[in-house]
Write a structure and sequence with these properties.
heterodimer, A: 66 residues, 2 helices, B: 326 residues, alpha/beta, 3 domains, six-stranded mixed β-sheet, 23% strand, flat
């Protein structure tokens, strides 16, 4: 029987949030889009909130291996 | 023989519990330290609040004292977060606890430095590589998470880098153009660079009062500064027209002061009077001054004595005269 890998939801969510933020930074810096500071603040807050939410919902010790 | 001297009955000390310093759970703004001190010394807690507030600006020793009192003086009610942290520190040992706090502060300072450095790198024109680095860190986190591993230690640095970079990218702060103080006093229009004056960080002064305005009745000037103070001086009889922009900070343009975020100013009301300065000035972060006065000092106070309104009234009057407005 194959052993199922346990996905780390916090790492996964943080990674996705960082990729999304990185894309916004690249697009804004390259001049492809002009993101107003207010909307960037919203995106940043949403990313941090998502990480905190996932961290709270996961609630486990990241170093613990079941 | 009897002693008729009246005696004052002393209260029985064993009936009264010893007075102990406790943080107040009812009279509190932050953690009840000043409320408890006020009750203990029987004085108005406002005195302690003012004392702690003032001490923050004098080396911050009061802030440290407040934190220590909050951690190690119990409350008179249910134990709060600070009391639980204090107990934990006492259990683990004071020095170990202080060392843990020092490590946390160091890590926080490191994250702030990381975010600031990332913002600086973006502001000097390396936004795309920084953005790609953030994407790469995000991809690494995702891959490790999908493979069942843990790389959560990467999250905080990644958030710090992304925060600094995104703030710098969105606010369009451009620090290219060098760092330092620059003063220009052109005598002819030819000596003004075709693209105008551009600086990254510092103080940028363009004094156009020695220019021969009879030869250059209409002068176009572009000026851009990343962060700092930019000042343009013109003679009082020159009409200033054009647009100014301050990303975040203050603009003082021919006697009108505005401040905040995204401060745009349309000056001159489209006048075609001569001599005229057609200005396109932008400061991302800081202060922009446009001063139409023959006597204003470049180094010291630019305006006359009194309030800003009083001191700049001659500038507004001169602009109205020069532009033929009003």
């Amino acid at each position: 029987m194959r052993r199922r890998l346990k996905v780390d939801p916090v790492g996964l969510g943080a990674g996705a949030a960082m990729v999304a933020l990185g894309v916004l930074i690249v697009l804004d810096s390259a001049g492809a889009v002009a993101i107003p500071p207010g909307w960037m603040a919203v995106a940043l807050t949403a990313a941090v909130a998502a990480i905190l939410l996932l961290s709270g919902l996961a609630g486990d010790d990241p170093g613990r291996q079941d | 023989m009897t002693d008729d001297t009246p005696t004052i009955e002393q209260p029985k000390t064993e009936d009264q519990p010893p007075r102990r310093l406790r943080r107040s759970s009812s009279d509190r703004i932050l953690l009840g330290v000043t409320g408890g001190l006020g009750r203990y010394f029987n004085v108005d807690p406002v005195i302690f609040r003012i004392g702690f507030g003032v001490s923050v600006f004098i080396g911050g020793i009061g802030l440290l004292a407040y934190l220590l009192l909050a951690l190690f003086v119990p409350t008179d009610g249910e134990p709060d977060f600070a009391q639980r942290v204090g107990r934990r520190l006492q259990v683990r040992g004071l020095w170990r606890g202080l060392a843990a706090i020092a490590i946390v502060l160091l890590v926080a300072a490191g994250l702030v430095v990381l975010g600031g450095a990332s913002a600086l790198v973006v502001a000097v024109g390396w936004g795309v590589p920084v953005g790609i680095a953030v994407i790469a860190i995000g991809a690494l986190l995702t891959i490790v998470a999908l493979r069942g591993g843990h790389a959560r230690w990467l999250i905080l640095p990644a958030v710090a880098i992304a925060t600094g970079a995104s703030v710098a990218a969105a606010s369009d702060v451009d620090l290219r153009g060098g760092i330092g103080d620059r003063e220009y006093r052109p005598l002819t229009a030819r000596s003004i660079p075709a693209g105008g004056y551009d600086s990254g960080i510092g103080r940028l002064v363009v004094d156009l009062r020695r220019l021969d305005w009879r030869r250059e009745p209409v002068l176009r000037l572009d000026l851009r500064l990343g962060a700092g103070q930019a000042s343009v001086f013109v003679p009082g009889d020159v009409c200033v027209t054009g647009t100014t922009h301050v990303g975040a900070g203050e603009s003082e343009v021919v006697g009108e002061r505005n401040s905040g975020v995204g401060v745009d100013h349309d000056v001159g009301s489209g006048s075609t009077a001569k001599p005229r300065l057609a200005l396109d000035a932008s400061v991302d972060l800081g202060q922009l001054r446009v001063i139409n006065s023959d006597t204003a000092s470049v180094e010291g106070r630019a305006y006359g004595p009194g309030s800003f309104e009083e001191g700049t009234a001659p500038l507004r009057a001169a602009e109205a005269r020069a532009c033929g407005v009003g």
